[in-house]
Amino acid sequence: MSNFRKGLRDGIPIALGYLSVSFTFGIQCISVGLNWWQAFLISLTNVTSAGQFAGLGIITSGAGFYFEMACTQFIINLRYALMALSLSQKTDKSVKGIHRWGIGFGITDEIFAVAMGNRSEVSNKYMYGLILLPVIGWSGGTLLGAVAGSVLPEVVRSALCIAIYGMFLAIIIPPAKKSSAVLKVILIAVALSCCFRYVPGMNKVSGGFAIIISTIVAAALGALFFPVPEKETKEAAE
Amino acid sequence: MKDLGVFFIYLAIMAGVTYLIRAIPFVLCKGKIKSKYLRDFLYYVPMAVLGAMTFPDIFYATGNYASSIAGLVVGCVLAFFEKSLLTVAISASGTALAVNLGMMFFK
After folding, report:
1. Least CB-CB distance to A63: which of B3, B15, B75?
2. Which residues, 6+ apart, have CB-to-CB distance to A210 below 8 Å?
3. Which of A104, A151, B28, B32 has the greatest count of CB atoms below 10 A from its CB?
4. Which pLDDT belongs to residue A1?
5. Domain boundaries of chain B, sorted by first residue
6. Smallest Cα distance from A116 to chain B, Å
7. Are A139 and A43 in contact (CB under 8 A)?
8. CB A71 within 8 A of CB A58
9. Nearest to B3 by CA among A34, A42, A44, A146
């Protein structure tokens, strides 16, 4: 199977997961007074969940909050910078020059996770294949939600919202089973993230920052106390 | 949003900031990173970030605890047995839907 086709195949579950989440984004855009094509354009150009939902809140507060928009997007999406760094260690020689600018557009949580889950290095053709269907699913789902969202009963719409988390579980649990170091890093990140929600004082930190801090602390402690055996990083990098 | 000019300014800021955050580190970081510590750090990032994004948000995902936790449990079990992403995602949603419907009928 060609790399591009393998990428496409790996992108199918992501695209289906995105359909359901972006569907709710489309519904929400209409409810705050945007047009269907505006909802579609936001999803097509941003391809991110949390940032778009937060950005929509700012757009509806009217003109002039441009600096706040830039800061909000920066903080919520800063995790992508970490992922981009991490992914840059996983790509083979074909991912260079203009392809870096092209593939950079498609670094989302799920595309990143699936790309990193490959046993070997990933090529540019694989990455384009992997990115294509999720982008179509994300913007198409938004369009569907904007145009036809009101057709689905609320009970179905709300159940769809857990799909994306189910996908995350399917990504993190198998490696945690095999490596107690990975399990401990995940537990640290989860514990911190919960503290940022429930502990008075800490819960004043915004959601975007909470994820960044939890990630950095957990991964830094992991790298400090559970150095990865050379063989494994090599395996992950090859 | 009636003022199209304002909409497009917001769209450009959103899309521009989001794109540059992704692309710049990816473009600048070309070679393999030398530091073993930094490589190990980046090795753990994906698991840490997905863990932090999933919890505690998943408890509230469907709007009520019962169906969220049912979806979470089914998702964890299937993920433990290494079912595919799509299987786990759809089963978690299906379970949440079943619980939501059950709660509507047996209230």
Report:
1. B3
2. A192, A193, A196, A197, B52
3. A104
4. 67
5. 31-105
6. 8
7. yes
8. no
9. A34
Among B93, B105, B107, the strongest candidate for a mutation testing the A interface, having the largest count of A CBs within 10 A, is B93
Please tell me the distance from the alpha carbon of residue A27 to that of residue B80, in angstroms, as a whole number: 33
Are residues B71 and B95 in contact, defined by beta-carbon separation less than 8 angstroms?
yes
Cα separation values, A238 from A90, A93, A210, A229, Å = 8, 12, 32, 15
Secondary structure (3-state) at A81? helix
Write out the two tokens for A93: 């020689």
- ipTM of model over 0.90: no
Contact A189 B49 (CB under 8 A): yes
Of the candidates B3, A84, A128, the one whose C-alpha atom is nearest the C-alpha of residue B11 is B3
Cα–Cα distance, B22 to B32 (Å, whole number)? 18
Q: Is the pLDDT of residue B40 over 70?
A: yes
C-beta atoms of B85 and A114 within 8 A? yes
Residues of B in contact with A62 (CB under 8 A): 6
d(CA A35, CA A22): 15
- When pLDDT is cut at 50, 70 and 90, the band that residue A69 belongs to is confident
pLDDT at residue A236, rounded to an integer: 47
Nearest to B77 by CA among A160, A177, A20, A122: A177
* Distance in angstroms (rounded) separating the CA atoms of residues B83 and B97: 20
The tokens for B7 are 């909409």
* A19-23, A168-172, A187-191, A204-208: least confident range: A204-208
Best probe of the A interface among B10, B11, B21, by most A CBs < 10 A, is: B21
Query: Tell me, what's the pLDDT at A237?
Result: 41
- Reported as a single tens digit per residue, the pLDDT across B50-82 is 899 899 989 998 889 999 999 999 999 999 999
Residue A35: pLDDT band (50, 70, 90) is: very high
